[in-house]
Amino acid sequence: MRAELLHRLEPQSLFWAAATIGLYLAAHALYRRHARVWTSPLLVTWAACFALALALHTSYPSYIRGTQWLVTLLGPATMAFAMPIYEQRQLIRRHWPVLLTGVLAGSSLGFGSSWLFARMLNLPAGVCISLIPRSVTTPFALAFAQKVGGTPELTATCVVVTGLVGASLGMWILEWLPLRTAFARGALFGMGAHTVGTAKAREVGELEGSVAGLTMVLAGVFSVLAAPVFAWLLR
Amino acid sequence: MFRQFARQVRGNRWMQAGALVGLWWCCQWLVRVLGLPAPAGVLGLVLLLGMLLAGLPILWIHGGASGLLDHMVLFFVPAFMALLNHHELLGLVGLKILVVIVLSTLVVMVGTALVVDLCMRGRQDHAR
User: Fold this and answer.
1) Percent of chain A at pLDDT above 90?
2) B8 touches chain A (CB under 8 A)
3) ipTM of the predicted structure?
4) What is the dihedral of CA B86, B90, B96, B101, to 10 degrees?
5) Does B19 lie at the interface with A, CB-CB under 8 angstroms?
6) Between the CA of residue B65 and those of A43, B35, B52, B57, what are the distances in Å?
7) Is the predicted pLDDT of residue A86 greater than 80, yes or no?
8) Angle at Cα B100 formed by Cα B96 and Cα B101, nearest 5°?
9) What's the average model confidence in pLDDT over B72-100?
10) Most B CBs within 10 Å, among A13, A31, A79, A135, to test the B interface
11) B17, A76: Cβ pair inside 8 Å?
């Protein structure tokens, strides 16, 4: 425990934590002035950190040693979704059948299309299985991958890429798909790009953000419930 | 003394965020001890929602919860850096995986949005 703490206080670890937070604050300020898809703080911060790590020949283990605690905060952040859900409780009470239908449809499309496209491109079976839960938020996707027999590490990477791709794709889809209800816009982000999408949906609107958060959580719970069925199907 | 403490918590988003982290920590302990299949964040979400519905004033957590949600993007960045570890994904397999992700995400987003939009419109027409 103490050795672990000392590791975290190493100059290199402190440097990476400070660099990540500093670059994020800069990206945040940039986004406030020029709000475009390609200036999204996630993309800019990630690209800058990635370039810096490559330039300094830093490996992933030494990067993550100093920044693991930031990832840990995703747990409390997931928990914080209780607040927007609570604030929209009237709406949820009124429209829960729609939400449930959306989650069932979205999950089936996500699992099915990932598997189908992966098979069509002749990817190895292990990769195909790891791709199935990619539209579900990380903790659930990992639980799914472990149960069904994918590679958790690969699944985690695909989930992360899905979030990044989905958040940008989602904004683009909103421009040309005539969606009349905030529920549809929220479900699109929550189902297609999990937590990253939910953060994006909060930028679109308050209600969109809550629906996205709720859809994401429901989709996660559904995937864990559906995992044994998939394990049996893909045996 | 309790009142003074309560006033302090209501006004300080850092303290609220700290309390949320504390609650999450307890959830993690519970998940481990009871061997629950759900991640701690989700157990915490359910517990917190229950507490709010049972009458916990929302002002007690509002600042901290909004802070965590607003800066969630920062917590993702280190996770994305895992790509440093996967140089094999920069080749053909990685390209194929990217194609699968883009196509499948399009299908999921458009499909989900259309289904929900249709359902909502149906209900609104019905209500009219």
Assistant:
1) 34
2) no
3) 0.82
4) 60
5) no
6) 23, 27, 13, 13
7) yes
8) 115
9) 82
10) A79
11) yes
